[in-house]
Amino acid sequence: MRIAIETPRLILRDHVPEDAGALHAILSSPAATYYIPSMYHEALDETRRYVEAAIRDIDASPRLRYNLAIVTRENRLIGEVGLHLIDGEPECGHYGLGYYLHPDFWNRGFTTEAAGAALGFIFKNGAFRVSASCLAENLGSRRVLEKSGMVQEALLRAHTRHDGEWKDCAVYRAFAEDRI
Fold first, then answer.
1. Strand 129-135 with 94-101, pairing
2. 82: enclosing H helix or E strand
3. What is the pLDDT of residues 5-47, one digit of tens each?
4. 69 CB neighbour count, 10 Å cutoff
5. pLDDT score for 48
6. Which of 21, 110, 124, 146 is deepest in the core (most CB within 10 A)?
7. DSSP 3-state assignment of 117?
């Protein structure tokens, strides 16, 4: 089943093959992938394979991953929000949340809007818990998580190797019972 979640300014939808070019413009950007270096794509073919895998996930039964394009009402792909099952069963499980956005759209509330809609979607579909983490120094991402209704539950000291040094990681969570 294809997903399309509408918000006042955005549509979160499953990927289509034509997304590869616009997604590559984001994933080949050092600024956009600075805090998620594993997502950096040098070549367009790498992004095409990523989109193909996301499309294959649509028909998985049960569906364990939702990689949703963040698209403006003007039909411009500006990022992605993802949810993946970490533990448990899909209908009552623990999901992880992640996202990224084209730098031209930062600081305009789009990521918070997308993350909040993704949380609402996964909780309405039976999730028990959603977790997310980011480097503690990534204040923009921390604000997104907090504005989306998530609560910081841990600060992991010297947890993640980034840019040649060990950095702290902030861990956030939300429970279905707190949201619906």
1. parallel
2. strand 77-87
3. 999 999 999 999 999 999 999 999 999 999 999 999 999 999 9
4. 24
5. 98
6. 110
7. helix
pTM (two decimals)? 0.95
**Which domains does the chain possess?**
4-179 (3.40.630.30)
Q: Which two tokens stand for residue 94?
A: 């623990």
For tokens 């993802």, what's the residue? 82
Q: How far apart are the first and last CA of the chain?
A: 23
In three state form, how does the secondary structure of 10-77 look?
Answer: EEEEECCHHHHHHHHHHHCCCCCCCCCHHHCCCCHHHHHHHHHHHHHHHCCCCCCEEEEEEEECCCCE
133 token code pair: 């983490």
3-class state of residue 16 by DSSP: coil
Peptide bond before 62: cis, by omega within 30 degrees of 0? yes
**Phi and psi torsions of 119, nearest 5°:** -60, -45
